[in-house]
Structure formats: structure tokens, C-alpha cells
Known about the structure:
Layout: E1 15-16, H1 24-29, E2 39-45, E3 51-58, E4 62-67, E5 76-80, E6 84-91, E7 95-102, E8 105-113, H2 117-131, H3 142-146, H4 171-179, H5 184-192
Amino acid sequence: MHCPKTGVIPTADVVTERIPEGIRSQAEAVGIRDKDVLFAVRSDLALDAKPSQTWLIVTPGGVITFAAGGAGAPPTGPFPLAHVSKVWIRQTVGSAFLQFMIEGMCVDVIRFSNGLRDAFNTARIQLEKLTAGKEPEKEAFENARRRICPDCGLPFSRDDERCPHCGRGHSITLKALALMKPYWGWSLLVFLL
Length: 193
């Protein structure tokens, strides 16, 4: 099933500690194995803002991104962590970039929609720890995982713990009826007249 907004086929694993299947052949072609992956985070945009499943792969030595299924885009990187002096997120309208400062130059590493902010902010924090020579926290991504629908892989909205895409059906009607509860009696009376 394609996401109605982006057209991308979502996967439930937004964050994983192994090579995602959609990029396994590309990762193995550059020498990355499952045991090398500290964490991987899925984006829903390419650097040019086109819908694309792109993965940020973090290993002890560096960072590289791959477009799922090849998607015609070459990998971005690798960026050796020893050369990264700063990690930050640059917000734009509707999306953001994870950026590195490498030898005084700003580099766009991966782009993602606002719905994936939690996951990429956690990735930024873990990358800062790695560049400082510390170990990443294994449980750091648990909050980001809880904000993602396990069925379709799309993020929940900020104020709702239900997926806006999987929970379709009569949910809007039920919400409207719940808001009208104080007026049910009057509504029934008007309806019967």
C-alpha cells in the first residue's frame, strides 16, 4: 500500500539495528554487514524532496545513506565520523535536513519530512555522542518507535496515538458525534421534526 500523501511504500521499521532488506545488496556492495550497523533510520524523502525511501546507516566508523531499491540515486557518503565536527538538523518548510560540519563545510546528509522529526532528532543526539567518542544508547529510539504505526510505518500526529491512515473508516464521524454529545437530545428533536 502506498502512502496517500507521499506515494512511498512505508515500512513499519523506521529505526532498526540491522541492514534493511530494501538496501541490503547496496550496503553489502560497499562492505557493510549486519554486525556493523549501530542503527539505521528511514527517511521518506530524497535530498531533492522527492518521495523516496532513503536509509541513514550508522556504523562505528561512519555514516552512509542509500535509496531503497536503488531508486536511481547513488549512496551519499560515506562520511567518516572522525571528520564530523558538528551534527545538527536544519528545518525547512515541510521537511528538514540532517547536516554534518566536515572540515568547515556544511553537508546535507539526509532529508526527511516533519513526521519523522522524533526519529531523526534521536539519531542526531546519538551521532553527537559517537562523534564525541561515546557509545550510542540502545534504548534511545524507543520513544521514536512508539510514535510510528506498527502496521503501515507512518508517524502518528502529535496529539493522537492512533494512525491517521490505518484508523480511517468512521473515525471522523465518531469524533464529530462525540463532540456533539451535549447536544444529542436537541439534535434528535430537530431531526424528528
